[in-house]
Amino acid sequence: MEMYKIVVPGDFLSRDVKRAGEGTYVEDGCVYAHLYGILDEKDEIKVVALSGKYVPRRGDVVIGRIVDFSFPYWVVDIASPYKALLHVAEVAEEGERIEMSRMHEYLDIDDLIVAKVKSVDASMRVELALMKEFRVRRGDRLIEISHTKIPRIIGRHGSMIKMLKERSGCFIFIAKNGRIWIKGREDAVDVVSEAILMIANEAHTSGLTDRVARMLDTFRFQRRIFRKQGAGVKERTEKREVGGYGSVGSDVRESESKSESESECESESKSERVGEGGEIGLGERRIFDE
Amino acid sequence: MKKKGVQLIKDGRRIDGRAFDELRPIRIEVGVLKRADGSCYFELGENKVIAAVYGPRELHPRHIQDAKRAIIQYRYNMAPFSVDERKRPGPDRRSIEISKVSREALEPVIMTEFYPRTTIDVFVEVLQSDAGTRTAGINAASVALADAGIPMRDLVTSVAVGKVDGEIVLDLNAYEDNYGEADMPIAMIVRKNKITMMQMDGKMTKDEIKKALKLAKKACEKIYQLQREALIAKYSEEIEGEEQSDEQSAQWLKV
After folding, report:
1. What percentage of residues in chain B have a pLDDT greater than 70?
2. How many CB pairs under 8 A join A and B?
3. Looking at the structure, do residues A121 and A209 belong to the same domain, yes or no?
4. Is residue A84 part of a domain?
5. CA A146 to CA A201: how far, in whole Å?
6. Partner of A136 for a Cys bridge, out of A63, A112, A225, B246, CB 3.0 to 4.6 A?
């Protein structure tokens, strides 16, 4: 297994000052690293951080958790040193006004939301815009990893996340602040979660895509056995073409196709699921119409 | 503090057998505390210290926030069992002073302007003490800060030099510190050859100080290499077949 080059704050990187990028600083005509991370010299000279806190930027899509009320805002934890604010006007319908005493009827403490960062000012006051289409419900799984690993979960041109979705059949939503929302059959969600943790732990290595593929293959193999045992004589196809939504900022376009095996899966998962509100099974599009 | 008749140097060797310019053995491990954002375990001879960094994170109370940058809060503390005579828990004047000078040793390199209104908390706990704990602490803190992903211009490296039986020596142990003529802990940015901490306990002439600083610089160059290697080694280990526990870098929230 090869390793990328690890650099340490203060390491001299280059004299090519024009190409100095993220994670570096320039002094006396030289480019130095200011972060502990992986050196990337392909285009600009950058240091990709391996650790560090998420700092919100305008346009980022994040998963937040309501932690307080401060009329007319909800205070939202976005896994950052900075809390974010969500104005009541963002949540209210046309012409509707939400009063202080009724805020909790719309969003209460510990509710999870998907939101876009509307603005960040110089003193790091962060305001959010609620993405109305999404609301994370009970019965789902939310995992939190270092935000620095998110690009690795997405992969080059979305290749990694595409593989995860296709081979597990899960709905996976990746937020910029390191939070990942997964929905699906319990065993599939388990495998996806394990795969994501492995990617996060080994983000600095190469050959990762293959190792993840192998982990997912094992899962598919097990499912084949499970199905054959449960199904009886009937032949079924192994290929499941279920896509999902929600990669952040990637170019991946997911196609959704419902195959026969898929609808059988759906009924299985409905009976296993212990969610609130009779939640959806795999492959259903409905949630996004809300 | 010179006791009559106590001989600290015999036949060109110190009481523990070291040469005048020899460091005690050093061991560094990065990322030892999973809960901390960055951490480092550091051994310097019999000294054992552990540094933990949390942050940048929210800072309360409001009035000590700096609107333009992060503030650094450094806490050096000795565990009651770190010394022979039980050290009563809690900050004492010496710990408060060490905390202050250590913080000032690191502040010049930390790029605090990246994180307005936050704090970066550094905790250094001494588990075992044998003179030189503040230097071990600063070395450990530098590494822990890098581990936490805090942007820094450089690492800071620290060592003590001093005068014992008339000789300029490096990295004094407890005996030498107590019975020698001078103990001078310093911290520096090795690459830039800049000093960020310098203290003197005892007496040295100007020339002796010059000689001592030269010795300290050479030692810091060595220690700096070890700090770098430890940071780089952290990521080489993980791929050598040791699948570490899944729970490491994630938190599970079943909603």
Report:
1. 90
2. 130
3. no
4. yes
5. 10
6. A112
How many C-beta neighbours within 10 Å does residue B204 have?
19
pTM to 2 decimal places: 0.82
Select from A108, A105, A126, A109 the least CA-distant residue to A117.
A126
Of B38, B116, B153, the CB nearest to A10: B153
Beta carbons of B255 and A34 less than 8 Å apart = no
Q: How many CA atoms does the CB half-sphere of B102 hold within 13 Å?
A: 29
CA-CA distances (angstroms) from residue A48 to A52, A59, A145?
Answer: 11, 20, 16
Is B207 an 8 Å CB contact of chain A? no
Does B3 have pLDDT greater than 70? no
**Mutate which: B72, B145, B239, vs A, most A CBs within 10 A:** B239
Positive or negative, the CA dihedral A148, A74, B56, B243 is negative
Q: Note whether A72 and A147 are same-domain residues.
A: no
Q: How far is CA A279 from the centre of its chain?
A: 20
CA distance A198 to chain B (A): 7
Residue A58 · residue A120 · CB < 8 Å: yes
pLDDT higher than threshold 50 for residue A152: yes
d(CA A182, CA A193): 8
What single-letter amino acid sits at A5? K
Q: Do both A183 and A119 map to the same domain? A: no
Alpha-carbon dihedral sign for residues B179, B180, B182, B184: negative
- The residues in A 205-234 lying below 8 A from B, measured between CB atoms, are 205
ipTM above 0.90, yes or no: no
* Omega prior to A72 cis, within 30 of 0: yes
Name the residue in chain B with its Cα closest to that of A275: B255
* Range(s) of the domain holding residue A116: 61-130
Residue B247 has pLDDT above 60, yes or no: no
CA distances in angstroms from A84 to A65, A73, A142, B101, B107, listed in the order given: 10, 9, 19, 35, 28
Instruction: Look at residue A163 and tell me if it is in a domain.
Output: yes
pLDDT at A267 over 70: no
Q: Domains (ranges, CATH) in chain B?
A: 17-231 (3.30.230.70)
User: Would you call B62 an interface residue with chain A, using a CB distance cutoff of 8 Å?
Assistant: no
* Burial (CB count within 10 angstroms: exposed 0-12, middle 13-18, buried 19+), residue B52: buried
Put simply, the answer to whether B249 touches A197 (Cβ < 8 Å) is: yes
Same-domain pairing of A97 and A116: yes
Please indicate whether, in this complex, the C-beta atoms of A197 and B246 are within 8 angstroms of each other. yes
In 3-state terms, what secondary structure has residue A172? strand
Q: Does B108 touch chain A (CB under 8 A)?
A: no
**Residue where the block lists tokens 């003179």:** B131
- Cα separation of A253 and A165, whole Å? 12
A125 in the same domain as A81: yes
